[in-house]
Amino acid sequence: MNARLSAGLLITALLVTGCGGGGGTQTATTTPKVGLITKTETNPFFVKMKEGAQKSAQANGLELMSAAGKFDGDNASQITAIENMVAAGVKGILITPSDTKAIVPAIKKARDAGVLVIALDTPTDPQDATDALFATDNFKAGELIGQYAKAAMAGKPAKIATLDLAPGVTVGQLRHDGFLKGFGVPAGDPSVVCSQDTQGDQSKGQTAMENCLQKAPDINLVYTINEPAAMGAYTALKAKGREKDVLIVSVDGGCTGVKAVQSGQIAATSQQYPLKMAEDGVKAVADFAKTGKKASGYTDTGVTLITDKSVTGVEAKDTAFGLANCWG
Description:
- By secondary structure, the protein is of the alpha/beta class.
- It has 2 domains: 31-136 and 274-295, Response regulator (Rossmann fold, 3-Layer(aba) Sandwich), CATH 3.40.50; 138-271 and 305-324, Response regulator (Rossmann fold), CATH 3.40.50.2300.
- It has helices spanning 2-20, 44-59, 75-87, 104-112, 138-153, 170-183, 202-215, 227-239, 255-263, 274-291, 319-324; strands at 33-38, 63-68, 92-95, 116-120, 132-135, 160-164, 192-197, 221-224, 247-252, 268-271, 297-300, 304-306.
- Strands 2-1-3-4-5-11 form a 6-stranded parallel β-sheet, with helices on both faces. The chain has a 6-stranded mixed β-sheet with strand order 7-6-8-9-10-12, with helices on both faces.
- Helix 8 (227-239) links the parallel strand 8 (221-224) and strand 9.
């Protein structure tokens, strides 16, 4: 009996010691958790982002929790996901905010609870509402295709249609503004003869292009927020027999988009890298879990102009490079 009692007391003491080291919340063997919250689960961009997060979590000894909105713009689901992840004890949350302003109070609560919050792809408004941002330089992405379009037009007077994202969405505004700067025209310039919102959707892109052609049949240059919108524009132009004499430029670099560049439907696109955003974000959370040091500021995850019809003065890679690095 005495031997058994002594052994039991020893085990109890060891258990108490093990719990005490983590403040009673975790044992030494608990795997740190990282959360990923994307805008949707179905968009290939976010599918690739989740793939990058999973790969990086495994490499860095973290457990990945993931969630997404039911649709692009679903702020309520993202708020619920943040609350659930904080309750589950995550060390950090990576988020692509659907509503860059409305999500801020939920992010503040998470940060107040000691959680590292990093925005991926889309900055919050204000940007410093998160600890850090890992993203494409969306202004630069737009600027690159603007520079390309300017050179490709070779001095021909431009009649421009911009097929944008939606009002108040930072990514869309940055790409739009970057395109105008790259092309060398200010906002409100008369060369921009039509601007329509597409929500980045192919069918809405087609409708927007149809509307623009009704307003200005002599459009000869189309900027689009992403490649689905670009393919919608191409469909509308083809229906009018205009697909060969209108230059289309875009942003994203998904595999379908790069193939459209390869086939000549889109002249050029700026490629971004969602897998790298997620990999780098997860690594930052792993570093925080180990050292307590928080990532901060903006990290540019890169952008590359993709085209098979290069122009003088604008650095670009061909579609072989684009296909080797695309997503979707």
